[in-house]
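Researcher: I'm preparing a figure for a lab meeting and need a structural model of a single chain. I don't have an experimental structure, so a prediction will have to do for now. The sequence is pasted below. Please return the structure as tokens so I can convert it later.
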Amino acid sequence: MIVSSAGITAGVSQYQGQIHGQYFNNRSATFSADVFGNYALGINARKLTGLYSVTNFSGGATTVTIGNAVRITGTNDAKLLSELSVNDYVNINNNRLFITKISSNTIAYGVNFDGNTAGAATTYPAFRINNNLNNTKFTTLLFPVANATNTITDNQYTVYKCQTGITVTLSATTCVVTLDSASGTAAAEQPSFNPTDYLVSTDGTAGFSTSYNISAVAVAGNNITLTTTGTWASTALKVIYPVTRGAATNADLGRARTKTLTFSYFDTYLTTSDAIKSTLALSKTDVNRIVKVLQASTFVGTWNDVVTAGATDVTNRYDLDSGQRDSYYGAGSAILKAGFSTPSGSIRVFYDYFEHGAGDFFAKSSYDPTTTPYETIPTYKGQNLGDVLDFRTSVNPSTGLLIGSAPPKFNTAFTADISYYLGRKEMIFLDRSGLFYSVSGSPDKRPEILVLPTATMPLISTT
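Model: Understood. Here is the structure written out token by token.
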């Protein structure tokens, strides 16, 4: 039986628990990280009110060497006492600082963490980057939807975009940001109308070293007009801003990425130094299974049909590491089991893997039911991947670069229409005459335990 529920909000665990009971396990699916510059902003992250300068401990504009104390001075609107805590990390002008004391709303002290800090009276935005662990028994970028998910449609959620090289007129007060070509149209991505959501700086800087306060935002079609409280001090800007994505009109944005199962791909390890490694790094990510491992009779310079004909099947000596991790899909590996000696000849590993297509996240619809029906969809830490929103990116093993979309904006909701299958109890039993019978219960979120007739013996029970 299939049931549907409209407008499921992934950011509110109590609502999920009330509507869907055990299928959501009362879990929060609030997204856990935003990224600015070189840092991931964690569960308690935020942009601090006001602007801040970093100097030496006494307030002097001198260079402070790594590991020494710095003084952080905020503008009059700063709220350090309420927005910051001792032992937090903050990012100011791309310097990461560890907070040791907060004296007032405008004065705090800390230690420069990553390198020497050039003290100066210039003020910059500050970002709290404290990455406290939250729900450590759960994975970061996998969010359960419902057991036995059928479809996820009409989804909508918010992500950050970063656009660079935006040309402006020096000393002007407005600029126009056009949703880039990779984003499609404004129907696929709706930008925020809130001026405080926009982070604007001079392009080409590592952090937000020359920042601008935005007072107004106007959106017309693909064009976003930003008005600053001052004037532009550069002819090129970098802008980070949130957009709401939906899957209505764009082929990739807001939609599930495809996973195409590719069969019997192989990697070959010819030399002694490569083949005898206890972990053989495969060249593909998201490996589904090892099909076969062959060992040549000796180490060869080229693997050909003659080598294959004389090779030994050593598949039982290797375990698979699929390459799945909490926050990304990495390259898979064939791992030599304990107790087996290292190979005495070249190795060829045949395996099936999933080729990842375009889109923003993985879900049940990512898998082709003709090659990967629901019951064969891979799991991760016991969770069927057809029952989750999977925002993990893919690592390109050749370049090390991540492929995929940014995760949703921290503390926002993923809304969608979701349908899923209800379970039911089935039982086979034997009566005193030796006859077999079966009985079926009714589909339900919590299928009832079946009651058998008297003088019968249950044999098999399943849900």
